[in-house]
Structure formats: C-alpha cells, structure tokens
Amino acid sequence: MPVDAVPRSEAKDxxxxxxxxxxxxxxxxxxxxxxxxxxxxxxxxxxxxxxxxREIRTPTIEPLHLFTASGALSPQxxxxxxxxLDWDGWSGERVVLRPEAxxxxxxxxxxAAAAGSPQRLCYVQAAYRFAPGDADREIWQCxxxxxGLPAAEADAELLVLARDLLxxxxxxxxxxxxxxxxxxxAVFAAAGLSATDQLDAYDRMLDGDLAxxxxxxxxxxxxxxxxxxxxxxxxTSLGYVANLRAALLPAVPAAxxxxxxxxxxxxxxxxxxxxxxxxxGTARNFEYYTGVTFRMRDGEVECVTGGRYDGLxxxxxxxxxxxxxxxxxxxxxxxxxxxxxxxxx
Length: 345
Hints:
The chain contains 12 helices and 11 strands. It is an alpha+beta fold. The strands form 2 sheets. An 8-stranded mixed beta sheet has the order 1-5-6-11-10-9-7-8, with helices on both faces. The protein has a 3-stranded antiparallel beta sheet with strand order 2-4-3.
C-alpha cells in the first residue's frame, strides 16, 4: 500500500556516537525475533494459500516512474523514497528501492498478461522508505493483491481474509474502520473543490481537523449540507449506511455507486461478525484509491490497511482492471501476536 508523506526536513540526526554501527533506520533481527517473524510469516502464507493466493517476490529495485505514474507516491512522498540513477553507459533511468509492494505486483500482472483474469497474489518482502529520526526505514510487508474481480465480491473477500488472518494469529476480535475514497471525492466535486483542494480537505479530515467542514461549508454554501455530513460520518451499522444514503443522495447523486459499495462491504463485515465503524476516510493517498478503504485494529494497534485501486494496471501500461489489496507490517504483528504454546517465554 502507498506510504504517507513525512517531510525530510523533520529528520534530526543524533550524535554520531549514538548511532552504533548499523545504518540509520535499519534493524537486526536476532534469533528470538526471527522465531516470531517466521511464525507470523508461516501463518500468513498458510492462511492466504488456503484461499487461493499464490506467492510472488518482486525485485528490490524498480523504475521510479511506475510509482509516480500510478499515484502511489504523492509529490510529498517522493522525499521518502531511496532513488538513484542507474547508469547504462551515457544514459540511465531513475530507479528506487521498492517503497511498497502493490505497484510491483501490478507490474508483474501486466507483464504476465494476466490483468484481465482474477489473480490472487501474496508476498512477504521488504519496502524501503525514508523516515525521520530513528524510525524504521526498512519495513517488512506481508500483503495480498487481488486483480480482476468486481468490487463488491473482491472487497468482501479481502475484508474477511484480513479478519481471518488476525484471528488465526491469535489476536482478540479485530475491529474494522471502513471508508470509501469515491464518497469523499463525489462530495468534494459537488462542492466545486479543485483537485488540489480536495487533497488538502481529505488530509485535514483524516487528521481530525473539525474546522474543515465549517470552512468548506462557508466557502460553498450551496453544498454545505453534504460537506458537513461527510465530515460527520461515523456509524456502526447497515442502518447507518442507509440513513447516510437517504441524507446524501439528494445533494450528491454521484455518490450512489460509492454508497452501494460501502453498503456491500458493511454487509460482508456484519455477515462475518466483524465490528466496524464507517468513517469519512481511512487511508491517505487520496488520488490513488478509488473505492472502499479499510484498516483493522486490535485494540488501539493498527494491524492491517487496505483498499481498492481500480485503474492501477492501466496507469503502468496494462489494460483497465479492478484491483484491491491489503498489507501489514510483519514486524509489528510479530511484536503483538501471542506465542503459540508459550513459545516466546
């Protein structure tokens, strides 16, 4: 999944004597950590394989243009990639250490000429992102990508699979935060916001800026009701989604499809007995996502994030194809999952 932008200027270098011998942001995994790592990896691969997902591994170095063309890297997030010029005589191309795995998986599907048929893929591999201070810069991702399946069917499959993974790992009953990028996009467009203003408004909503709705409503009084309603989205049932539809559609007819997909995802969660909360948004990279987005938590810990990115294959030269997926920080999961049989003692 795409990464959020953190300005490079926020980095503060500690004294050289405090850095140790490792490169900044990199970490060793000792024997005990590797036991945890392999446990989570094994459960992840077995759980996904049982549902038809096949493992792939993509190169550590990929062309930069794949990520910029797809929208996986916003202009701000470009400061977070490790890029360099791969010389070839007097010419060369700008390449990056893989910052996330979804675009690479889409490239694989396009080159395998398989974008038009359902492709269920999974992976465990590292992603490299600059982060300020001593935060991790090498992130071990475990994730799945599903190409070629219609939205309602694919969204339901991924939501249940994410829940099943966390339960199989032994976590408490996971809870889901559910959003839809297309819903926010339809409301913002109805209010006449430019593409740039939409990105700003969406990020502010995710940051919990309560003033954004008032400011937008004051600037666009003709759409004030829809804007305030979007900012206040917060419900926990299919009945709430139905009420949202009744209140929103008269002002924003273009939101019909997004509301249908949101309702289908909520129904899938209710059918799987997964508690959920509908929010105005759950993921950044607003220009990248096209449909349902979600994150699953165990208590206060964010465990899995995902969403729909229809059109990704087309942005890198393939055919139009529906796509969606989710990913987790494997090392974060390894730190919180209970040990089988007390093996971590």
